[in-house]
Amino acid sequence: MKEPPRRAVGGRLAAVLIGLALMNPALAETPASLDLPALLELAERHNPELAAMSAEVEASRQAIVMASAWDDPVLRIEWMGIDPDNPTLAPRRVGEMKYGIEQMLPRWGTRGLEVERAEAGSRQAGFEREQRRLRLRGQVRTAYADWYQARESQRINRHLELLIEQVEQTAQQRYAVGLGAQAEVLRAQAERTMLGNEQLALLAEAEAARAELAGLLNLAPAALGGQPDSLPELLGHEADWGERALARNPGLKALEQQRQAADSRYRQSQLNNRPEVGLGLSAVQMGNDLDNVELMLSVRLPLQQGARRAERAEAGAMLARSQALADAGRRELEQAVHGLVARRDGSRQQLELLRHSLLPQAELTFESALAGYATGRVEFAMLLDAQQQIRRLGQDQLMAEVARFRAENALLTLTGEQ
């Protein structure tokens, strides 16, 4: 889903803002726990980009007031009949004083259209802030999932180390009584060494994910303690995600407000072909007497028709552009939601199969192979294959769990859910 280009904020700017906020210790607030809702609230409270967009929303509200105001009147004072031999500005010592006030009247209907544009711009700013808030929550959940994935990969790795220790012990026992080869013991030891090396890499990944999450919370990585212990289910089994996204997606609503503002501007450009009228009132002072009240009518003639035709053409093109962006946004949103629902459902089914069928079967297969290897009925290669199968299925289960969480997270962001 593309953001409206008018107020899009680049990823580099967001990174700079977060970096500047991290330099200010006053913004740091250590979370009480790694509870995901608490982390989301903390991220919203201290995100500098959200604070900047809130200020922009407030500024856009003030623009509505400015759009509804008339132009300021013009006050004129004229000194007439000044004696060149004795120049003065004293009203009673010149020939005449003329006081006047002029007010240009807005073209009929234009002021209401200006207010419509300002209101649409204010609503657009609000929806863009809401879109950024939802994206921030999605980024926090994604970083949390990355950290969880790295920690769970470490857990799987430690479980495999325990299994390979059993294999190594059994191989040593068989080698000690002359039933096995030393190569089998060395192969098991080499497998343990590789798992230990992988554990170091996974530790680095976990620390990088923790640092990313801490950055989103405006915290130093060391201030983020604890460990993520689970990935909660974020959504139920509702079937109307497409309709909910079209009705609630803030990015799509922002595009619609951009279209409404362009429509108001186009209608206003059609009114600019009319003359603009001004009224004036003046009075002449001679000595101490104030008389000769005058009324003035001025008309600004729209003679530059070429410029006005160009203005209407530009406004029409911008209206067509905003309409096309809104249409494209709807199509992209529908496609994205459809794909995410399919991924979420597929990951759920895969996770159910792995968790309750394939992985328990692989564990039983390994135990049976280990017992068979201890008595010489199973080859060492078959035992290692059983251990590798547990490795593959454990990783597949973790990937399915994370994929399900990521799909639900993206659905939450697109549908404007919390």
TrEMBL record:
GO terms for molecular function: efflux transmembrane transporter activity. Transmembrane segments: none annotated. InterPro entries: MdtP/NodT-like (IPR010131), OMP_efflux (IPR003423). Keywords: Signal. It comes from the Bacteria. Residues 1-28 form the signal peptide. Pfam families: OEP. SUPFAM superfamilies: Outer membrane efflux proteins (OEP). Belongs to the outer membrane factor (OMF) (TC 1.B.17) family. PANTHER family: BLR4935 PROTEIN, OUTER MEMBRANE CATION EFFLUX PROTEIN. This is Transporter. The lineage of its organism: Bacteria, Pseudomonadati, Pseudomonadota, Gammaproteobacteria, Aeromonadales.
